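Thread: Secreted protein, structure

OP (GT): Posting the sequence first so everyone is looking at the same thing. Length is 143 residues per the record. Can we get the structure tokens written out before standup tomorrow? I want them in the notebook alongside the other entries.
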Amino acid sequence: MASRPAVPRKRPALLLLPLGLVLWLAAVCVAIAHEPPEGSPSATALSTDVTRAVRDQDADRLQRLFAPDTVGDDYAATLLARLTGAGPTSPPATVRTADGGQFLHLGATAADGRPTCLTWQITQTDDRWYADGIPPLAPPACP
């Protein structure tokens, strides 16, 4: 019986490697395209979004509601941890106008039981509304 010359076989793994790379790149692109935008479409929506993020303990969503470059990378996670440690918060967050600006108030109960609130000034950039992470120098009184 005559032997046939050996035919080089392509390894299936080498063929699947480029396909796997293409699928991974497509998944990354889809994930980036579907990430929610930063900020909110209005001051009222910002108030609702902050309320939901605090209620749901969603640090990622809360972080995206602060104006870029006004808070550190872990600000929202640290804030939520401190709010949880301090006691119950009393959402909803509210929007108030004072001294020519808009402010976002989030009510909370201090460790000693007295009511308190956090206040952030609301800023607008490119049709998106944000909470400014830098505390206002003269915040309006809590509602």
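GT: Both are above now. Quick notes for whoever picks this up: The first helix runs from residue 12 to 33. The CA atoms of residues 7 and 70 lie 64 Å apart.
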